[in-house]
Amino acid sequence: MRGALASGRRLGTLAGLFGLCVLLWALTPHFLTVANLLNVLEQTAINAVIAAGMTFVIVSGGIDLSVGSLVAVAGVVLAAALHRSMPIAVALAASLGVGVGFGLLNGVAITWGRLPPFIATLGMMSIARGCALLFTEGRPVSGFDPAFRSVATAKLAAIPAPVFVTVGVYLLAHFVLSATRFGRYVYSMGGNEEATRLSGVNVRLHKTLVYGVSGLASAVAAVLLTARLNSAQPIAGIMYELDAIAATVIGGTSLMGGEGGLGGTIIGALIMGVLRNGLNLLGVSSFVQQIVIGLVIVVAVLIDTMLKSRKT
Amino acid sequence: MDKRQRVMSCLTLCAVIAIAGACNREAARGTGGGKPRVALVMKTLNNPFFIDMQRGAEQAAKDLNVDLVVQAAERETDVERQMQIVENLIQAHVGALALTPSGSREVVPVVGKANQANIPVVIVDTRLDQKAAADAGVKTASFVGSDNYKGGQIIGGYLVKVSNGKARVAVLEGIPGHETGDSRVRGFRDAIKGAPGVTIVASQPANWERDQGFNVFQNILQAHPDVDTVFACNDIMGLGAIEAIAAANKSGQIRVLGFDAIDDARKAITDGRMAATVAQYPDEMGRAAIEAAVKAMKGEPVPADIGVRIGLITKDNAARESDRK
Amino acid sequence: MATPSPSVPLLQMQRISKQFPGVRALDDVSFDLERGEVHVLLGENGAGKSTLMKILSGACGRDAGEILIDGRAVALQSPRDAQALGISTIYQEFNLVPHLSAAANIFLGREPLHGAGVINRRTLLAGAGALLRGLGTRIDPAARVGDLSVAEQQMVEVAKALSIDARILIMDEPTSALTESEIDELFAAIARLTARGVAVIYISHRMEELARVGRRATVMRDGRTVATRALPCPIPELVRLMANRDIAHHFPPPTRTRGVPILQIERLSRPPKLHDVSFTLHRGEILGVAGLLGAGRTELARAIFGADQPDGGCVRLEGRPLRLRAPSDAIRAGIGLVPEDRKRHGFVPGQSVAANLALPQLRRLCRGGVIDRARERSLARRWIDELRIKTAGPSARVLTLSGGNQQKVVLGKWLAAGADVLIVDEPTRGIDVAAKMEIYQLLDRLAGRGAGILMISSELPEVLGMSDRILVMHQGRLQAVLDAREATQERVLHAALGLAS
Questions:
Q1: Minimal CA separation from A77 to chain B, in Å
Q2: In terms of pTM, does the model score above 0.80?
């Protein structure tokens, strides 16, 4: 039973997150404070939002390496629009539109162009980065209206705005993936693309849309990042794709496609956020931090494959 | 059996964290342990400049009897990660913070957060963007660094002198928008203004990195084979350019000017592969930064601008200077 | 090693048996091979030829029986053993690396070296050249295999087999893709091999060429050897031996009556696998499609379903021509396909029974793009009951079901979608007997309600027992249309082998 199995695996990941928190609570007095936990949530927001889009892509059996570059290009478009004193709504729409547009281009290259997702999005990673650099002549665009910055700075009941944005993104994404026809097709395509096609599903269209969703998520992350740094850098988001893939995979979504979900991904993103925060609080050297994060990713996936090989 | 594996996974995870944590148990105790605690957050640790800075800071911390936490992002370009580190250190209640900003404007918000938490911030090496800081109303306790503009002038003046006013120069810039690199280039350009025979034929960013310094300069050599001088805004990029020169079999034909005077650059100058660099004394910066941070933490007055000496390093003094360490 | 007495056959396979889950693939089979002989192996699809050859090439173990070479029993547990014994197989799909030269392919894994891993190109090319010349071909050993014709690639395969000192060569349908003159060349090469004492086991469905190449023919049927005849032997006799399979199952008595035409296929072509096929399917009719492997039956099904684009021809549904650009067009018109390879094309294994049943008509179960879970579940419940699918519930993953129940899910998809025309490709492959009966009853009931069913099957008894009429295909063409009442296994097989009636 898919539901039960998925939630079983998610429970394991959740236990991992919980264990991590208990351990940090034991090791440092600064971890388990409201301020620090909110801090962790705020820091996790950007990776979590990108990983939500990545989850769609990976469940559909693909991969998107271009998300980091899409964050940069959507960010600089947003910043440029704001600097030309366009209304915030227009600037946001332009930024999200650019993200979706580049994402759909990925999809078209993969479906109609028949390129492997790895190659198509690897190309886009460089193309989008180049566009961002060209557009800004390599320089960051900074200094925005406080009204826009409130996306990152506003607080409601002490909870930072990016946390609300992330929760909203996840509720919506979870609804789409689990309750809608599109979401069902995403799972079917990842589980057995040919059987899905032979059941009359327009696989090309829906696969293209999946990459559009990923582009949209990257653009939302770009809005958060730009507001947070009060600056949009064309070199922003380098290697963010790896963090997003890591969060998705730690959350139990299989790189083979067809399985997984957003509940796991948010926990995966939180594990990465808590880990980074905790290692900072402990004053662990940044070299050791990289080793620890790498081990967590490998161990998480190792367990996933071990579980699977037992199952079948 | 799933359950057992799940437990195993948690245990593995815990073990890893516990080991990492145990290594730093002392630091983890925070201010409660008696000694006051200050933090130095740098751009990255994969640049010897920052390693030297860390060495100076550690020495100062020992002399002043404070705990020192040193953290840095994996990549020099990752401002968001640096911001996270600072936020986490604010949560850990460090007494004071010394920070080398990865982005002059981008770190302004997080300096604001430190202000709110009443943690004094000493900016090191790269100035905050004045306007952005003023707009956001953030305060810093002090700036410790050497005058990058002046450093650029010194090396530019040196070039005019040794080339007898005739040179075709390629410039390797840092990350666009970084105050440090921009000032160095500005100083350099101003110094060569007086010599019409010294022209800049190409100026391209190599983002502070060695491999990019290699590649970018290799490309410049393709486009401008007549380049006879390269000015790299830091030694790392300059060392990359030296490799590119060797690969093009032009060793000895192109004058390499660097900045920062890291050990490898000094060695290169002694060997004759590099012409000159500007000594920044990052270890003195680290020391001064921690001294200023500790003073600020205790509420003692700190000068707003602490200059660290700067000097030209050529074959004449490279060896002597490196003996200093 | 003493020279064996010439009276002992080169190879003796004695009383070989092999059981697969649910099927007795080989039952007490004996087979022998003389030095320098070409021994033809004949049999219908599933008669046990390939299993026997897999055992001989070490690709598959045996449950009982002995294999003797030169009169001595050998272990033969793995392909390595077979290679060491000089047994080599040339499959229909060549095992060649297209980017490498002929010489490199021939000596792949056994390259002559200078030492330190450096390949001795000169020895490599000279050795390969000598082998190829010995077969009477003029292939350049340095030529890239991908640039060679199919016939030349086959010669490279033969040369590769000879390079490991093969004494027994198994050739599976070696002439299926060759032209007449290429066949002549191949036979000449085989004659040279046998003159040197190499023995060949030759599997083919081309009856007319058997006598030209073989000395003896052994016929297999239902996992047994039926007879061995010296060649030449009259073709009708061989066909009769291959047919007459046991009718293992009882088929439900038909409850249906034939109605008006529903699906008309006109001159459908998709070269090279499908040429100019025309027929009509009626409501209430089960139209069987028989033919050997590779006769173009699956290609026909996929073309009608819009899964592959035909190059010519027309599909009419109740007189209206259909535009079939994708399966969705066929589904909208009321056509369903139960594909041959259930696992790869039939269902999404990781998803629930309910999700799989709903997949083709998800659009109808949605309101504003959101799936109505309650309707999805009730739909699933209804078809689970109606088809008696044995499952833990609608949310059980399909991969947890048995083969028969998986097939019912695939069928149920189309029943739930209300398909008027159902194409079923090998509907009972790999399914136990009880489930087979249920599927037969289901198909009959469906036709009884007025659907038209096109049933492709390699099981002759199934085709004869279930169909109202039988289409027989041969090499992508419609060879014959037989009325079920007058069809016999022999007649179907005769047409399937491409023999004139």
A1: 17
A2: no
